[in-house]
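The passage that follows is intended for readers who have already worked through the single-chain material. We present the inputs for a multi-component assembly, then the predicted structure in tokenized form, and finally a short commentary. You are encouraged to pause after the input and sketch how you expect the pieces to fit together before reading on.
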Amino acid sequence: MAGGTQSSTEYIQHHLQNLTYGKLPAGYTRYDGSVVSQDTWTLAHTSQEAADMGFMALHLDTLGWSIALGILFCFVFNFAAKRAHAGVPTGLLNFVEMLVEFVDNNVKDAFHYKNPLVAPLALTIFVWVFLMNLMDLVPVDWLPSLAAYLAGDPHFFFKVVPSTDPNATLGMSFSVFFLILYYSTKEKGLIGFWKELALHPFNHWAFIPVNLFLEIVNLCTKPISLGLRLFGNLYAGEMIFILIAIMYGAGWFLGSLAGVLQWAWAVFHILVIALQAFVFMVLTVVYLSMAHEVDEH
Amino acid sequence: MNINLTLFGQSFSFAVFVLFCMKFVWPAITNAMAERAKKIEEGLAAADRANTDLELAKEKVAQDLKEAKAQAASIIEAANKRANQIVEEAKDTARKEGDRLKIAAQADIEQEVNRAKEDLRKQVSLLALAGAEKILGSTIDAQKNDQLVNNLVAEL
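Having made your guess, compare it with the prediction:
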């Protein structure tokens, strides 16, 4: 538990706040009472400041960790790809090929069209999301405490699990949504795509408004459910880790119970993080497969 | 938990990572795997081929062995035959030579006998003449003598 002076509520809130770098409008009164004379880009010192920055803000911790993990993925896989050969695979190459084959089989099962993007997309999603989720298994206080120590500020905000930030998960799912729209239009034509929206599920002209409403809602729920599912699962998991971490400060009995609980929850969470990465990947492939599907009537 | 520009930052980095994977990771690995699959397939086919080749070679070896045995048997048989033949011929020659030698020896013996008979006859007639001379006490006329002797010889 970071600092004995915090209450449990403060501790939880502190853990759920991203490191936000954003624009404060002119005339804004900051946490210490000073007034900003003009629009300034700065780090938020309180959750209120972060909220008041509105849309013009970046979560440095989310972006930093997700990009670092993405680069790790690219580096490791590129390292293996450069050494890929037709002989007997060993070590890293074996591992990478196992993942590639696993993803490839899943893509082949769900996606029966020719598209060079889908399989690498699925691999990237699977590995990247898995790595982001994996950060959840690092005990909740380690990296934030280290960051606070390095920054010299005990109230430094630092979240290490990018997939507990809806910006990260929705950012990915909206990219997938963009691909769904792109391939739907490309494969079916603009008219074909709209016809599909208008003539499903009731294939009669009188139902066109109903169909359009249903199908557009259906279409728009895809990215939102995709992003929020991942976010929700990881956010809940993170929350439980935080609650367990609070118990460490409550005497030796609850503290040791917390140790056991943390271990048990981490073991269970291994399943969740892999499963959520897999679900995100499979749903992306299925959605793209649906986008390629040209209807008969 | 505010929605902000991070959304686009995440989308952008996502796109970059996907493109990187699509360009540098996926093709290299899947190509290597496809190539390996092909190599393994070829290897298995080669092993199959080698197996059938081995079977064929074994059959050929058995065939050759059989032929060689048959040939060896026929050679031995011919050699035996020839050996018997040679032995027979040698026996034949030896017998003929023996016969010839016997005949020659017999002829010699006969000749010797005849010569001895001749000598004996002459000596007997001389003896008879000498006996007769002694009995008669006079020499017999040489001419008559000779005639006598010859007659005697002829009679003997």
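Commentary: Residues 61-292 of chain A form one domain. Chain A has a mean pLDDT of 90. How closely did your sketch match?
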